[in-house]
Write a structure and sequence with these properties.
Elements (H helix, E strand, L loop, with lengths): L10 E4 L17 E4 L18 H6 L4 E5 L2 E4 L4 E4 L2 H4 L8 H11 L13 H13 L6 E5 L2 H18 L7 E5 L8 H6 L16 E4 L5 H4 L15 H9 L4 E6 L15 H12 L2 E5 L13 H5 L5 E4 L11 E5 L1 H7 L19 H15 L3 H16 L8 E7 L2 E6 L8 H14 L1 E2 L1 E3 L2 E4 L7 H18 L8
Helix pairs in contact: 3-12, 4-12, 5-11, 13-15, 14-15
The protein binds pyridoxal-5'-phosphate (PLP).
Pyridoxal-5'-phosphate binds next to helix 5.
Length: about 475
């Protein structure tokens, strides 16, 4: 067996192979383990990192070499508290024993099976499990591998749904300013972050956007849903009137906008969207890639806000980030509209090689066990009030212009510095990791927090203390207290 060595000094353990039965792998001593990846690769050049200023990063790289529970181990030997759960995904904490064990067991039984015209049991069991967790009447699941794929899948299902019902004139999609729906062409078309759209050509036809809901003048320092802004949902009526409601297929929103800086919905806003969609025959899609699976203390944001959408997109927390997987949950009426005509016809010409991948199914089942049977979603709900209380003590510090939160999700918005958007929050985030041993995420001039559900009060204290010190010590004379 030949294994090419890396250029840098990694160590491989290479075992000898033994005799091989025809058609079978040798049974003894054939494992080749890749161990001890070097903490400092000789070159960082080849990897074009996503959503990263590559040249800047590679001048002073920060590498993670290990993880456990709430912590990351950095290559320089430091251990930092992960207050963003990886990238809003490691909700049960890193290397959760249940999930690791399930994945290890699965890989030794079935590594891969297609879900195209053949199947494997775990995908069906997981889909059933998700249907049981979903809001009532959402009993069907389409598997993907990421949030971006879930979004594009949901948009395609929405368009095809209307056609299946003989209403093919509904082709328009409505997103929202400041929304993040991943990086597929569908997702960036309905997405509302200009710099993620502007370099990629004309995008999808027939897309329009609702106004975003951030209103610092009226709602700064709200706890949970802000009081003002339900009327922003009425902009949907205006858009429908502009385009003719009978041409609109679906509206997609994040119930709590995440990547743009954590914007909880104004009180009553989501319900108003639902009412308008119902009146006009338009599907409502909630993108719950961040909010799904307990982030807000309930299974889904739809449960917390008491609004049932027609489709829910998920990913991230579904497998605790341990392996890529996404899922689109949908109402029975949406699914059933496709189950017409010849039984031998493919109902939806869509899917991925890795839809319902066995390893991802194993990870997801174990993750859902951790969330429900081990009580992590309940823990998330129980810690949220303390998290809220502590975060709002940051009000009054120089340059803090808003604190927003719902569940274990929060944004601390800072007054922008003259030298450029995002520089203030980047400085604070850098200080937190360097001085406070806490990893937070800067999105624009907002510090986003989305810790694992397993955090305790002392971890909340550490996060908030480190933010307080970072904000105070990076403050400029121009930073006013709000
Ligand atoms: N939708 C939302 C709401 C997200 O927050 C994200 C990622 O942050 C995505 C979609 C895209 O997910 P992925 O990066 O897995 O494609």
């Amino acid at each position: 067996m030949y294994i090419s060595r890396q250029k840098y000094n990694s160590s491989f353990k290479i075992g000898s192979t033994t005799t091989r039965e025809p058609g079978r792998f040798p049974t003894e001593n054939h494992l080749v383990a890749f161990a001890d990846t070097p903490a400092s690769p000789a070159s960082l050049d080849a990897f074009w990192m996503p959503f990263t200023p590559n040249r800047k990063f590679k001048q002073s790289p920060r590498l993670i070499v290990g993880s456990e529970g709430l912590y990351y181990d950095l290559a320089d030997g430091r251990r930092v508290l992960d207050a963003i759960a990886g990238l809003w995904c490691v909700n049960a904490g890193h290397r959760h024993p249940r999930i690791s064990a399930a994945m290890k067991a699965q890989i030794d039984v079935l590594d891969y099976a297609s879900s195209f015209q053949i199947g494997h049991p775990a995908a069906f069991v997981l889909a059933q499990r998700l249907a049981e967790m979903a809001p009532a009447g959402m009993n069907h699941v389409f598997f993907t591998n990421s949030g971006s794929e879930s979004v594009d899948t949901a948009l395609k299902i929405a368009l095809a749904y209307h056609r299946a019902r003989g209403d093919a004139g509904r082709y328009r999609l409505i997103g929202r300013e400041r929304a993040y729906h991943g990086v597929g062409f569908g997702g960036i078309s309905v997405g509302g972050i200009g710099r993620q759209r502007s370099t990629f050509g004309p995008l999808l036809n027939g897309v329009d956007h609702l106004p975003h809901t951030l209103d610092l003048a009226r709602n700064a320092f709200s706890r949970g849903e802000p009081a003002h802004g339900i009327e922003k949902a009425d902009a949907l009526e205006a858009l429908l009137a502009l385009h003719d409601p009978s041409t609109v297929a679906a509206v997609i929103v994040e119930p709590v906008a995440g990547s743009t800086g954590v914007l909880p919905p104004p009180r009553g806003y989501l319900r108003r969207l639902r009412e308008i969609c119902d009146k006009r025959g338009v599907l409502l899609i909630f993108d719950e890639v961040i909010t799904g699976f307990g982030r807000l203390g309930t299974n889904f944001a739809a449960d917390l806000f008491g609004v049932r959408p027609d489709l829910i997109t998920t990913a991230k927390g579904l497998t605790n980030g341990a392996v890529p997987m996404g899922a689109v949950l949908m109402r029975d009426e949406v699914h059933d509209a496709f189950m017409q005509g010849s039984v031998s016809g493919i109902e939806l010409s869509h899917g991925y090689t890795y839809s319902g991948h066995p390893l991802a199914c194993a990870a997801a089942m174990a993750t859902l066990d951790a969330y429900t049977q081990d009580g992590l979603i309940a823990q998330s709900a129980a810690t949220a009030p303390y998290f809220e209380e502590c975060l709002h003590t940051l009000r009054g510090l120089p340059g803090v212009i808003d604190v927003r939160n719902v569940g274990l999700l929060a944004g601390i918005e800072l007054q922008p510095w003259a030298e450029g958007a995002g520089t203030h929050a980047q400085a604070v985030a850098q200080h937190c990791v360097d001085q406070g041993g806490v990893l937070v995420r800067s999105v624009g001039d907002t510090i986003a927090l989305s810790p694992p559900f397993t955090l305790e009060r002392r971890h909340v204290d550490q996060i908030v203390d480190s933010l307080r010190a970072a904000i105070a010590q990076t403050a400029r004379p121009t930073d006013a207290a709000a």
